[in-house]
């Protein structure tokens, strides 16, 4: 009964902020047949160079959130069922491009559970750790913050209680593996717990995962977000361990969903939204402002820094609308002192065109107006 009430309340809250964002993001491979060509460095070699703490030592969550600043998601790569299956294989050049453009942070979505044993102790395959190490190192060695995100844990969304053990055992390994890495490596506990995950279950699971992480990483900054696909409507139901101040709270923003996800092949019915524009009218700007002010108020009330961990408009929308919307969202986030990480680098929402080896200037201009990479 209580579970039904929580869900009903949650859906009500999300309806206010746009229930469309609750649409299941079931994705089908966009470019099957592209195989990965990992360029991983041997385990331990690159990692060793990053173990020295930077001069500023362990930061508090607000300081680290400022360092996150403006970032970009390296999406559709390591969180695909296997890297390359969705058309993106990470390249060293991508990290350099992002750095040169002026991004401070890379968020690295990783689908851990498919690269591990299927039963306890759920050992993560060493070759996969090597690949992730390479990616983490590629960001850290360039002075960027890296958010290591636990993405697409699909079985958990179906049954969080059945998957609690696997969730904790995977985190125990990840935390142990990266415990000597510098503070600019940030952990994110779980991407987008869906609307099928009751808030009470998520609050319990996140507290348990945090306890596991704290055993090996007492001071590391950890990112955590609410149920309801990390939408802002889930924030009132998020309950965090009060005494743990090393947390940054994240939310994702794709409103209006019919605009940002028009024509997205993983969202049922989204072809009907093709042609939806975003003109930047006073009412449209005000809607974003109102949403963000509610997030900001939550952050102030709970004393937590806020990260806008994903936002973006899919490539099927017209570029002028995408650029206007991206500008409005990024500016309003910055005004409220949220750090932000654009979704994403070089796939369907991409700010960079990997085939042409150049930036999509209308998007880059709005994300990083002073970027020296314009036209490159
Ligand atoms: C999902 C992606 C999706 C994006 C926008 C992300 O959190 O993991 O698969 O493309 O949101 O819908």
List keywords for this structure.
376 residues; alpha/beta; TIM Barrel; eight-stranded parallel β-barrel; two-stranded antiparallel ribbon; 12 helices; 10 strands; 38% helix; disordered N terminus; binds beta-D-glucopyranose
The portion of residues forming beta strands comes to 5-15%
Low-pLDDT residue intervals, each spanning 5 or more residues = 1-55
**CA-to-CA gap between the ends?**
57 Å
Q: What's the story with the biggest beta sheet?
A: 8 strands, parallel, barrel
User: What sort of overall outline do the alpha carbons produce when their principal axes are compared?
Assistant: globular
Helix content: 25-40%
How would you spell out the order of helices and strands? HHHEHEHEHHEHEEHHEHEEEH
CATH architecture of the domain at 2-40 and 57-272: Alpha-Beta Barrel
User: CATH topology of the domain at 2-40 and 57-272, anyone?
Assistant: TIM Barrel
Helix-strand makeup class: alpha/beta
Q: Helix count?
A: 12
Round the Cα radius of gyration to an integer and report it: 19 Å
Which quaternary structure do these chains form? single chain
Give the strand order of the largest sheet, numbering strands 1, 2, ... along the chain: 1-2-3-4-5-6-7-8
